[in-house]
Amino acid sequence: MRKHWIYTGVLVLLAVCTQRVAAQQEVTLHDAGGKEIKVPMRKALPVSADRVRYPGFRQETVVLQEGSVRREGAKPLACDILLERDVPIKLRDGVTIYADVFRPTDGKPCPAILAWSPYGKEIGGQMLDDVPGRAGVPVDATSGLEKFEGPDPAYWVNHGYAIVNVDKRGAYMSEGNLLYWGHEDALDGCDVIEWIASQNWCTGKVGMSGNSWLTVSQWFIAVERPEHLVAIAPWEGFCDHYRESGTRGGIPTPEFPEMIAETFSSAHGMLEDQPRMIVEKPLMCDYWQDKAARVENIEIPAYVVASYTNSVHTHGTFAGYRRMASKEKWLRVHNTQEWFDYYTPENVEDLRRFFDHYLKGVDNGWEQTPKVRLSVLNPGGHDIVGRAEEEFPLARTVYRKLYLSAADSTLLTALPEQENVNTYQSAADCHQVNYRYRMDKPTEITGYMKLHLWVAAPDNDDMDLSVRVEKLSKDGQPIPDRMGNRIVATGQMRVSMRQLDTLRTTEAEPYYPFTTVQKLKPGEIVPVEIEIWPMGLFFEKGEILQLTVGAYQPEKAAIPFGSAHITVPKEDFTYMPGQQPEMMTLGGNADECADPAEVVTSPATHNVGRHCIYTGGRYDSYLYIPEIPAKE
Fold first, then answer.
1. Kindly report the CA angle at 601 between 597 and 607, in degrees rounded to 5?
2. Run of H or E residues at 316
3. How far apart are CA 77 and CA 67, in angstroms?
4. Over 70: is that where the pLDDT of 567 sits?
5. Among 27, 44, 231, 408, which is disulfide-ready with 271 (CB 3.0 to 4.6 Å)?
6. What is the pLDDT of residues 396-428, one digit of tens each?
7. Measuring CA to CA, which residue among 200, 193, 202 is closest to residue 221?
8. DSSP assignment, residue 598?
């Protein structure tokens, strides 16, 4: 194995890094208009922490041999790969970040795919091994060279691409403070894209791929229109952090962002304390505006993948697809799980057809791919997968109102004449009420729902509501999917944040500015429009649609990131099966925290005492559903 390398010990670099860590706990960022935004910072884990699984800083160029493996059980490499490790890239402000570049060994220029996140360049603080059952993705589905949630370099190099895995600003040994998304982080991504395009091994055409954080990054970076970014493939990820993750429905929910933040490592700087901003900035402001991607500016080709069942990504993926200005954009809605879908071989091949067409100029008929390939979930039956459509939401949608009846906890096709009220105690074990509608014919409901609801809180001046829509069997029992999960469309709403943006609200989709607080007055009964995220559900005749309305309760995010032990060679990057190189084991601790005093937890809900739901007569509470007639 030929290699030329320069090794720099992590401990030496850490000694230098320690002097650079800013003592300040706040930094100033700038939005796209140049407006200053003050942002609190927090400590990140050191690179020496077990949890972050940092494999070490090593600048070298090495050929990874065909047939070698990164770790036991991983897929052997299908070809030789030229790997350049810890390549320095200087950003516009002089900050240096580091990337691993995987590319073919033939020396011919090739297009490149960029994977952008703070998760590590391959091994890092978050890995599928931390997830129960690896979300159904077997170890041998990939080579193990991939960044978490990113494209597998072994596959793409074998097909004539370079993969660039970056430790973004502040991550691991990259200099600076570790930032979340927004204008300044996006400019870093633009700098790296232009650097890639300028390399003699690149054709000048760059794409982006990846799931979750790597998708959110694509929305933000593509908005800035870097010259050499040719195509993107956002595979499930929100585009508005406030509305779709941090403060959905106006309810601050920092638990999931906090769980992610606790896994980050930075040797040089500090971490943007976004979980704290969720709690301390509960209204829409300049900070949160900067965390909402201006996807209308995206004009390049895009292959977008969405699902109905992701509690963080569903709405934003559909919204990004719908709002982007690209004329050449495709949507595929799958019926499994985001990581499983991303690494499924036929889906990887499908993505390659897209990139081959736009990054290589291959005339492979990609443009004939249906603009929308839709799935419709049918728990207890057979899902519809890959149905060709022209748009989303579907133009042939027929909207219908199902009116709530408190008298018998049903949903009716006509408004009940009699006024009634359902009441529950918001702190009780059973803090909800159900309403049911039995389908009188086979029915597909696909698209956006909303709940128009008349409510009151006699014992308080506010209320936090949670809404679910799901399918039950003919005898009224829940129907889990093949993974044992219940398929539900969800919504949530803080009633004091109910003011609508009348210019952006449609009949099916309420839109909230989240800039005004309207507390309830004693005895006041008010209407609220609750947005329910997109869903595709099929009901056989006699099956039941159940609407659940209840008091919102925070859910603890508890993926044990950092817990899995990952064993890789200590010196060589890969090894041939049967060899026994000296190995090192990383990980095994999901409890490390940079500073327990900085951990952010969910604030108390605005639920006290009774919640009242009014129906019938003056109180036209209804569920607005999108029925889909069969194609003619």
1. 145
2. helix 314-323
3. 5
4. yes
5. 44
6. 999 999 999 999 999 999 999 999 999 999 999
7. 193
8. G
The Cα 57–Cα 8 span in angstroms is 6
* CA 509 from centroid of its chain's CA atoms: 21
The token duo for 16 is 């230098």
Would you call 136 helix, strand, or coil by DSSP?
helix
Give the tens place of pLDDT for each residue, 267-306: 999 999 999 999 999 999 999 999 999 999 999 999 999 9
Angstrom CA distances, 102 to 56, 69, 162, 369, 546, stand at 18, 15, 5, 30, 50
pLDDT, position 2 = 36
Region 512-529 average pLDDT: 97
Query: What tokens appear for 369 in the block?
Result: 């791919």
Q: For residue 10, what pLDDT is reported? A: 39
Q: What single letter denotes the amino acid at residue 312?
A: V
Report the largest interatomic distance among the alpha carbons of the chain, rounded to a whole angstrom.
83
Q: Averaged over 6-10, what is the pLDDT?
A: 37
The C-alpha atoms of residue 121 and residue 85 are separated, in whole angstroms, by: 9
Domains, the chain, in order of start with CATH, read 3-12+25-369+565-597 (3.40.50.1820), 398-553+605-627 (2.60.120.260)
d(CA 229, CA 399): 39
Amino acid at 397: T
Give me 425's structure tokens.
């105690």
Q: How far apart are CA 632 and CA 621, in angstroms?
A: 33
C-beta contacts of 62-67 below 8 A and 24+ residues apart: 62/1, 62/2, 62/3, 62/5, 62/572, 62/573, 63/1, 63/2, 63/3, 63/105, 64/145, 64/573, 64/574, 65/1, 65/574, 65/576, 67/576, 67/577
Tell me if the bond preceding 393 is cis, omega within 30° of 0.
Answer: yes
- How far apart CA 585 and CA 53 sit, in angstroms, is 9
How does residue 555 score in pLDDT terms, banded at 50, 70 and 90?
Answer: confident
Residues 443/469, Cβ–Cβ less than 8 Å: no
Tally the residues of the chain. Answer: 632
Six-digit token pair at 432? Answer: 């909800």
pLDDT of residue 1: 39
Sheet holding 26-30, edge to edge: 26-30, 36-42, 271-272
pTM beyond 0.90, yes or no: yes
With a cut of 60, say whether residue 13 has pLDDT above it.
no
Q: What tokens does 299 get? A: 């004009």
So what's the pLDDT on residue 557? 79
Residue type, 3: K
- Single-letter amino acid, residue 585: T
